[in-house]
Write a structure and sequence with these properties.
Chain B: Its main location: membrane. The complex is a heterodimer of chains A (about 260) and B (about 270). Chain A has about 260 residues and is α/β, with parallel strands linked by helices. Chain A is built from nine helices and ten strands. Chain B is mostly helical and about 270 residues long. Classes of the chains: A alpha/beta (about 260), B mainly alpha (about 270). At the A-B interface, helix 2, strand 6 and helix 4 of A face helix 7 and helix 8 of B. The structure holds adenosine-5'-triphosphate (ATP) and magnesium ion.
C-alpha cells in the first residue's frame, strides 16, 4: 500500500505547489489523480520516487518511508517502482529489447549495467514481457521507428522488467489516439488485477479516469479536494476539482483537456 | 522595440526602414575598411582575369608532373593519417571532458566551469599558433603537427560534445534514474546511445577539417603534403604544386562523400 502523508512542496522560495497532500493507493487497484493543469499532479508523482525532492511529509510504501532512504536504499526502492511518461522517454537509437532490459539497471552492478551484460534469463524475460504487451515481433526494432502506442507499451514492459510493486504513470495516454489509449489502459488495469500492483495514474481525461479507475484523487492548486471510490464522483465533485483558484465559483468544464 | 503598431502598413514601413538602415551601415563598414587598408576594389577586380590566366598557365599539372605523383601520394597519405589520428585521440579525451563538463551530467558546477574555460582556451588559439609554439619543444616532426591539431580539436570537440549532451532530452535520462540506474549507468545506457550519431557526425566533420588544417600545419612543421607543396613552390615547380592542390581537393571531396555515407548509415 502507498500512503502519502502531509506532503508539502515549495518550488523556489514562494511557489507553494503541494499543500499537506494526503492520500492512499491500494495494490490491485487503479488510482487516478485528476485536476486542472498546474494543480500539482506531476509534482506528486515525481516526489513519490524522489525525482524531485519534497520539503516535508511522509511517503510510505509498504510502511517504508521513501523520504528517509539513503542513496543506496533509494536505488533499491526505485528499482521496484516503474514509471511511464507522456513522452515515453525510451532511448531512441536502441532496440525495444534493450530498452526493456534497462528495467534491470537498478538491480545490476555498475559495470554490468554500463556494458549491458545481461543474463540469458533476463533476456528471455524481456522478450516474454514484450510478448505480453503484444510487441514480440518488434523486439529488435529501434524505438524511434515504433508508433506512439507501441513505444508506450515498450515503456510498460520496461517498468514490468523492474518486478515493480507500483507503477507511476504521468499522463500515459495524452499523446495517444483512442485505439492506443484503450490498449494501454486495458494493460494497466489488467496489471493491477492480475499482479496486484499499485497503479497510480495522472490523467487529464476525466472520462477515461471514470471508466478505468477504482479510486480517484482530485487535486486543485496543490491541495487534495476529493478522495474516494470512483462511483462517489459526481458533477458537484468534478466542479470542485476543476474550479479555478483565482476565480472562486468559476467552473471549467471537466473534460476541457 | 515597439510592439504595437497603428496599422500593418505602418509595421511594414518601419520594418523596411530598419532594413535600409542596416544595409547602409554594412555598406559604410565596407567602404570604411577598404579605405583603411587602401584596397582599391576596382583595380583589384580588373586584375583578376590576368591573375587567373597566369595561375592556370602555371599551375595546371602536365604530363611532366605525373613523375611527382609517387612522393605526393605518400605525403598525402601521411597527412591524412595525422589528421585522422589526431581527431580520434582528441575525440576520446573530448568525450570524457564533455561528460564531466555538460551541465546535465557534470559531477559539480565548478568542474563544468573549469572544463568550459579550458576548452575555450584551447579552441581560441589558432592551429598555426599551436604549431609554432610546439615547434620549440618538439622540433619539425609529424608529432608536432599531430599535437597542434590535437589541442585545437580537443577544444573544439569538447565544446561541440558538451552542447550535444546538454541538448538531449533530460526526461529520458530521468527515466533511467527512475528505474534505479546510477550515474555511470545513466551515462552509458542513456546519454551515450542518444548522443552517438551526433557525436560521430562531429568527429567526421573534424577529420575533414583537420585534413585541410594539416596541410597548413605541415608548412610549418616541415612534414606532410604541406611541406612538399612549399618545396615545389619555392623551386618554381608550379605544375607539381598544382597537382598537390588538385589531389588535396579530390581527397577532401572523397572524405566528405564517405562521411556523408557513414552519417546516413548511423542516423
Ligand atoms: N521545476 C519547477 N520549478 C518551479 N515551479 C514548478 C516546477 N515544476 C512545476 N512547478 C509549478 O508547480 C505547480 C504544479 O506543477 P505540476 O507540473 O505538478 O502540475 P500538473 O498538475 O502536472 O500540471 P499539468 O496537468 O499541466 O501537467 C505549477 O504551478 C508549476 O508552475
Ligand atoms: Mg503534469
Amino acid at each position: 500500500m502507498l500512503k502519502v502523508i502531509q506532503l508539502d512542496k515549495t518550488y523556489g522560495s514562494n511557489k507553494h505547489s503541494l499543500k499537506a497532500v494526503n492520500f492512499t493507493a491500494q495494490p490491485g487497484e487503479v488510482t487516478a489523480i485528476i485536476g486542472p493543469s498546474g494543480a500539482g499532479k506531476t509534482t506528486i508523482l515525481r516526489s513519490i520516487n524522489q525525482l524531485i525532492r519534497d520539503d516535508s511529509g511522509q511517503i510510505l510504501l509498504d510502511d517504508q518511508d521513501i523520504r528517509q532512504a539513503n542513496k543506496g536504499e533509494l536505488r533499491k526502492i526505485r528499482h521496484h517502482i516503474g514509471m511511464i511518461f507522456q513522452n515515453y522517454n525510451l532511448i531512441n537509437p536502441l532496440t525495444a529489447l534493450e530498452n526493456v532490459l534497462h528495467g534491470r539497471l537498478g538491480a545490476k552492478s555498475t559495470v554490468a549495467g554500463m556494458l549491458g551484460l545481461y543474463s540469458d534469463d533476463e533476456k528471455s524475460e524481456a522478450l516474454a514481457l514484450l510478448d505480453e504487451v503484444g510487441l514480440k515481433e518488434y523486439a529488435y526494432q529501434r524505438c524511434d521507428q515504433l508508433s506512439g502506442g507501441q513505444q508506450q507499451r515498450v515503456g510498460i514492459a520496461r517498468a514490468l522488467m523492474q518486478h515493480p510493486k507500483m507503477i507511476l504513470c504521468d499522463e500515459p495516454i495524452a499523446s495517444l489516439d483512442p485505439k492506443s489509449t484503450k490498449i494501454v489502459m486495458d494493460i494497466l488495469r489488467k496489471l493491477a488485477r492480475e499482479k496486484q500492483l499499485i497503479i497510480l495514474i495522472n490523467l487529464h481525461q476525466v472520462d477515461i479516469a471514470l471508466e478505468y479507475a477504482d479510486h480517484i484523487v482530485g487535486i486543485n492548486s496543490g491541495a487534495i479536494v476529493f478522495e474516494g471510490p470512483t462511483d462517489e464522483v459526481n458533477d458537484g465533485v468534478l466542479q470542485k476539482i476543476y474550479r479555478q483558484a483565482d476565480q472562486p465559483g468559476a467552473v471549467v468544464t471537466a473534460n476541457e483537456n | 522595440m515597439k510592439t504595437n503598431y497603428q496599422s500593418p502598413q505602418q509595421f511594414y514601413r518601419q520594418r523596411r526602414l530598419r532594413m535600409l538602415i542596416v544595409l547602409l551601415i554594412l555598406i559604410g563598414i565596407y567602404v570604411g575598411s577598404m579605405l583603411l587598408v587602401k584596397f582599391q576594389t576596382w583595380n583589384s577586380i580588373v586584375k583578376i582575369p590576368a591573375g587567373l590566366i597566369w595561375l592556370f598557365h602555371n599551375f595546371i599539372p602536365t604530363e611532366r608532373s605525373i613523375s611527382y605523383l609517387g612522393p605526393i601520394l605518400y605525403q598525402l597519405w601521411r597527412t591524412l593519417l595525422v589528421s585522422i589520428s589526431s581527431t580520434i585521440v582528441a575525440s576520446i579525451f573530448a568525450l570524457m571532458a564533455a561528460i564531466l563538463g555538460a551541465k546535465t551530467t557534470t559531477p559539480h558546477r565548478s568542474v563544468s566551469l573549469v572544463i568550459r574555460f579550458g576548452a575555450s582556451l584551447l579552441r581560441n588559439i589558432p592551429v598555426v599558433a599551436w604549431a609554432m609554439i610546439l615547434l620549440f619543444s618538439f622540433k619539425q616532426s609529424d608529432f608536432t603537427g599531430f599535437l597542434a591539431l590535437f589541442f585545437m580539436t580537443l577544444g573544439y570537440l569538447t565544446r561541440a560534445f558538451t552542447e550535444t549532451i546538454e541538448d538531449l532530452d533530460a526526461e529520458k535520462i530521468q527515466a533511467l534514474q527512475a528505474v534505479g540506474a546510477n550515474y555511470f549507468q545513466c551515462v552509458f545506457c542513456g546519454v551515450l546511445p542518444e548522443a552517438a550519431s551526433t557525436l560521430t557526425s562531429w568527429v567526421l566533420y573534424m577529420i575533414e577539417n583537420n585534413l585541410r588544417d594539416a596541410t597548413l600545419v605541415g608548412l610549418l612543421t616541415g612534414t606532410g603534403v604541406g611541406f612538399l607543396f612549399d618545396t615545389y613552390f619555392k623551386s618554381f615547380r608550379y605544375d607539381a604544386a598544382g597537382l598537390i592542390v588538385l589531389l588535396i581537393a579530390i581527397l577532401v571531396i572523397l572524405l566528405e562523400l564517405t562521411s556523408t555515407q557513414i552519417r546516413r548509415a548511423i542516423a
